[in-house]
């Protein structure tokens, strides 16, 4: 049974208000707290000595979902978890991951998730990953996700990566290799505040003919927080890639954007755009003339920007 | 006296068809081949043991020019030259540098120019640097320019950096530091062919309030040539920065673009755009329907792109 804090963390990271439908694996404080498999989706604890699970989705599985939330509510836990997703050909599924850390103690809590996705031919997945931290302890809340995506021909991956609040330190690495006709869409939304530090690295290799990617990052950096965004798109074939990074900088924050376009084939078409700036003054004034305080107006604008 | 080949190189790198008007220093095969100073512009050989010259432009000097072309026509010369420009307040001058290498031998010829510009308050300079190589020897033509620019308040620097042909290996580094109200505009045009390798690095630090920069690179990579373009804009103040990199990739060439936006101040507004791709097919077809061969149509398009 989950306690109230743990349930709240589940809501934050997986929009869950109870046990989800379909397949799921809930991990709390380093232990399995619940699991369900279906006829098409199997979840098995790894037997090779590593901590983690193997998720196997049968070819042709449609309109099913897998939830694998992780909650840390004890201070001082440090874990590395390896989760592998084998997604069968022609399937169409939603995968919801995410980690919530509630740290009221003075020891750091850290969850490093290494996720690998083997996406079969013409399979389609939507992957949602939310990271959230809270708790007033002096211990840090640390999340270092590594995501590796191997896309077979014609597959389609849509990733939503969200870290809105409360994570003190994160170093995210996402690597993808796309075969012919494969598509990868990434929407990253990131907010840092206080003294938080966030580094986010994307490396997408467009190996197959007709492969394409669109990596879009929107971030807000408040207070004295620091953000580094690196996105490399490598075009090895007839392919198209687009990366976009828009950041709002506030207070004494520091934002660095380093995209990289690497065209190794005459038929690679790669585009990048980036913009860093503060909230436009006239937007603030307009909202304030409608009766909002400056702080409320800022919240409104940031909310819209990160939606 | 310059020989015919040397005169031709001068024409390529400095648009000179004879001895220029105004101040000049012509360097041929590691030796001074001519110098002229004016009432306002002094050129002196360095006395600190380093090879190179000091160019001093008096405050308020307007509508004058300095030409400092370098020609290497012997095979096997390798030199590093330090040239310092002291540009007085309120002056408005044109500086034309550039290096041409004619290498018919089997030894490499290399010119590494280290140029420093100390640009006084409200001074304005236009700097043109052309690099050119030719000759059918097996020796390489190598140019590694380092350009450092220190801009005082209100100064304006417009740089045109051109390397169109014949340079086998180049590693360009341009660094600038801008005080309040200073502006730096860079237009780089680069073409590589054969097995040439070109790396171009820009680092512009916007330190002063109201400083701004616009770094625009256009390049064409043919055959199996390789290009790396890195442009970092650091915003330390109320400032605005824009970098743009457009590259045409042809044949088996390889192009990498790595811009970097580094916003360290809430009032820094930084923007970057990059695009790498091949010549648009419909543009080619249109020109070919007007009677051009495919090669002629390509030349036409490249010429327009790099103009």
TrEMBL record, chains A, B:
InterPro entries, alphabetized: Fe-S_cluster_assembly_SufBD (IPR055346), SUF_FeS_clus_asmbl_SufBD_core (IPR000825), SUF_FeS_clus_asmbl_SufBD_sf (IPR037284)
SUF system FeS cluster assembly SufBD core domain ranges (all copies): 87-305
Biological process annotations from GO: iron-sulfur cluster assembly
Alphabetical list of Pfam families matching this protein: SUFBD_core (PF01458)
Family: Belongs to the iron-sulfur cluster assembly SufBD family.
Name this polypeptide is given: SufD family Fe-S cluster assembly protein
Annotated source species: Anaerovibrio slackiae
């Amino acid at each position: 049974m989950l306690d109230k804090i743990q349930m709240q963390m589940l809501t934050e990271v997986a929009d869950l208000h109870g046990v989800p439908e379909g397949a799921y694996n809930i991990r709390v404080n380093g232990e399995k707290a619940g699991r369900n498999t279906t006829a098409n989706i199997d979840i098995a604890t790894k037997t090779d000595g590593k901590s983690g699970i193997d998720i196997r989705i049968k070819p042709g599985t449609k309109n099913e979902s897998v939830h694998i939330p992780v909650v840390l509510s004890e201070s001082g836990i440090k874990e590395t978890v390896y989760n592998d997703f084998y997604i069968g050909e022609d399937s169409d599924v939603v995968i919801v991951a995410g980690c919530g850390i509630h740290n009221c103690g003075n020891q750091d809590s850290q969850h490093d998730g290494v996720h690998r996705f083997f996406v079969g031919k013409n399979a389609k997945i939507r992957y949602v990953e939310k990271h959230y931290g809270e708790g007033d302890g002096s211990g840090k809340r640390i999340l270092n996700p590594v995501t590796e995506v191997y896309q077979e021909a014609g597959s389609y991956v849509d990733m939503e990566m969200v870290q809105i609040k409360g994570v003190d330190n994160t170093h995210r690495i996402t690597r993808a290799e796309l075969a012919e006709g494969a598509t990868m869409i990434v929407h990253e939304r990131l907010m840092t505040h206080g003294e938080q530090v966030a580094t986010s690295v994307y490396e997408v290799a467009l190996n197959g003919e007709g492969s394409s990617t669109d990596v879009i990052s929107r971030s807000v950096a408040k207070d004295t927080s620091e953000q580094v965004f690196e996105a490399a798109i490598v075009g090895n074939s007839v392919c198209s890639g687009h990366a976009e990074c828009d950041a709002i900088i506030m207070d004494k924050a520091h934002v660095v954007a380093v995209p990289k376009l690497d065209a190794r084939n005459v038929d690679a078409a790669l585009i990048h755009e980036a913009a860093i700036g503060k909230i436009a003054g006239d937007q603030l004034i307009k909202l304030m003339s409608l009766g909002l305080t400056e702080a409320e107006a800022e919240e409104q604008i940031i909310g819209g920007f990160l939606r």
